[in-house]
Write a structure and sequence with these properties.
alpha+beta; 2 domains; 315 residues; 20 strands
Length: 315
């Protein structure tokens, strides 16, 4: 069996030494009121978040560039952040605006990061400027949003984001029989999408999930290596986002957000049953997986996503 094509370029996929530029969950929005300051480590890098009096959230390196005081002790003045130690005042762009007691104001600045708020969370871009929008349902879609508790894994977060792209495991582990070969579309340098259609082989799984009448039909979009947005068309329409981030040297934390259309309350149990059947065994295996690049020709879909993430810029 021939091996899937491998790239000769950088190997950033599942590398704990680098963080790919992307959107990472930094905090719950409710934990950061107007005028509030919050510490956060969305990618292991220590940041400070603050919400200006205009309601917007800002993010910056946690240390004051003057003498290294932690800006988490600071306070908000208008839309700016004031260091507690010497009252140096920094704007939302990181520029030093005031330096009390200093005759000649230094040119130091604090590094800032783009932020956005969606679905009750603050997201921070790991890099100087956002290179792609946060994936997910359109803002004008009327959807119920359910945020599940964080889950911890012993493996790298890239492996969770591309788990479904390992189409070779769907039959042995989940008894899911593909109806057609998966189709992969590379949208841009940061996102790739796979369409997956199939049905469970066993009758009880088809009955519980609703796959007895309709094939499982979904689009999986992987963005930035850490985000997987799944839009399920059948048997039950719903969407889910798996948002991963590093946790320690090799582990990860994943936040799952479930989106349900209006009037779907009675079908929630089918959605949960489908997620449980697809994810429970994955968690057990991924939690004990030490990734190796032993690709075969049957792994070409997965290898395509791995090569795509290998080429993404790092923070």
């Amino acid at each position: 069996m021939a091996a899937a094509h491998e790239s000769s370029g950088p190997r950033r996929f599942a590398d704990p030494a680098v963080v790919v530029q992307s959107w990472y969950v930094a905090a719950r929005a409710r934990d950061l009121p107007r005028g509030g300051v919050l510490r956060s480590r969305p990618t292991g890098r220590e940041l400070v978040l603050w919400r200006g009096l205009d309601g917007r959230v800002h993010a910056a390196d946690a240390r004051c560039p003057h003498l290294g005081a932690h800006l988490g002790h600071g306070r908000v003045a208008g839309d700016d952040l004031v260091c507690a130690l010497h009252h140096f005042r920094f704007g939302s762009d990181g520029a030093l605006l005031e330096a009390p007691g200093v005759t000649s104001r230094p040119s130091c600045r604090v590094r800032t990061f783009p932020t956005t708020e969606r679905w009750g969370f603050v997201w921070v871009w790991q890099g100087p400027r956002a290179l792609h929008p946060l994936p997910g349902p359109a803002t004008d879609e009327r959807l119920r949003v359910l945020a599940f508790p964080e889950q911890r894994f012993a493996c790298h977060h890239h492996l969770i984001a591309v788990n479904a792209c390992d189409t070779l495991h769907l039959g042995p582990l989940h008894e899911l029989e593909l109806a057609e070969a998966p189709v992969v579309t590379i949208a841009d340098d940061f996102s790739a999408t796979m369409r997956l259609r199939g049905r469970f082989k066993t009758a009880w799984k088809r009955r519980v999930t609703g796959c007895n009448r309709h094939d499982f039909d979904a689009l999986f979009t992987v963005s930035g290596g850490n985000l997987c947005w799944v839009a399920v068309a059948a048997p039950v329409p719903f969407q889910v986002i798996f948002a991963g981030r590093p946790d320690g040297a090799t582990g990860s934390i994943t936040r799952s957000l479930l989106f349900l259309p209006p009037g779907s309350t009675r079908r929630v149990w089918r959605v949960l049953a489908l997620l449980l059947l697809l994810l429970k065994r994955d968690h057990d295996i991924l939690d004990d997986l030490a990734f190796m690049r032993g690709f075969t020709d049957a792994d070409e879909v997965l290898a395509t996503f791995v090569r795509h993430i290998d080429a993404m810029p790092v923070g």
